[in-house]
Write a structure and sequence with these properties.
The chain is α/β, with parallel strands linked by helices and 393 residues long. It folds into 2 domains: 201 residues, 3-Layer(aba) Sandwich (Rossmann fold), CATH 3.40.50.2000; 182 residues, Rossmann fold (3-Layer(aba) Sandwich). The chain contains 17 helices and 13 strands. It has a 7-stranded parallel beta sheet with strand order 3-2-1-4-5-6-7. It has a 6-stranded parallel beta sheet with strand order 10-9-8-11-12-13, with helices on both faces. 42% of the residues are buried.
Length: 393
Amino acid sequence: MKALHILHGIEYSGAEIMLYQASDIFHENNIQTTLLACEKKTGQFEQPMREKGYIVDSVGTDGKLATLKNFYNYFKKNKFDIVHIHAEDMYLWRVIALKLTGHNNIIRSFHNCWKFTGPLRAKRILHRRIASILGVKNHAIGTAVEANERDTFRNKTFIINNWIQLKPEIQERKQEIRQQKRQELGIDADSFVIISIGGCSNVKNHEFILNLIEPLSEKGLKVTYLHVGTGKDEEAEKVSSKALGVDSKVVFTGNRKDIPELLICADIYLMPSLFEGLSIALLEAMYYNGLVVVNDAPGLTNMIDKERTGYVIDVKEKDRYLDVIARVGKGQIDVSQMRSNARAFVEENFSMDVNVRKLIAFYKQNTQLDRKENKDQIVPVTEDRLSELTSGI
């Protein structure tokens, strides 16, 4: 089976990390997988993906009609049994290009709890409706995304949860790993380490964490903030850390492959994002660290059984963040059971082996149905008809 995944770019992000981790299972099931970046440059995660056996390609975007032509030409030249779209931007144009080139098995994954309003919301509702009429199967990566698609966009989806690769053998070496990573990163053994993982953008809200460091230091904690990830706002965040006078207490690591070890190295994971879908970073934090504090926001609140598997605190309540973190750091709260509960929750619901095999079963079911029924056959059209066919969309 030949499968295509259409992504914004091949970056160190949730969908790409899941594909990276699941490569062996795809190979075992004889699925040849191509990753297509919707950018002229593929992205920073290209080489590791190639090393995992993926084919990596890119198609640039240059406006609606030009984009449609670019994708049309690519899909006309390259044929796939199943196409899995992850990118939100220009989504309908890609579906049209696929249908015009005879690709009938299309899955769209929704990864985020988008809260579009006004004309943009109406437009996205229309696009989802047209895509469904064209036979696209709509997939949500978790219950929060499924509810958001239903309530915000009137879009019916099926759920296969996101996954992470569980490495229980790492848990057995926690003390050794914790000591090694702190030495490697130049972090004192007695530091209280806060960690965040994710791209640098306003949605991830890393500025909120930077503004916690000095007040926590005033409460008597020897704080180090382990900032993992890169992005368009990284330099701005570095400037903020200097302006706040906390740059000596922040370790900007960039993108890393040793995420489990970094989480074990830390004392607490903070996720003050404004919204999420079903965050891979949060799942990894719950499994490898076990103590998480998240914002009361779409895609986060539903993931935490409050004060049983973690803390949910609105970022507007800065004093509550400071109080909880300070009490944890001083050993005034026993969080050992919370850590165990968080790990158990991930093991039961987000195993890579279980959820990847569900996705593969869905792929196989749909390709078999297509061959059996020989339905919805589309004859490719000439490029000069593309503008006419897509007018008004």
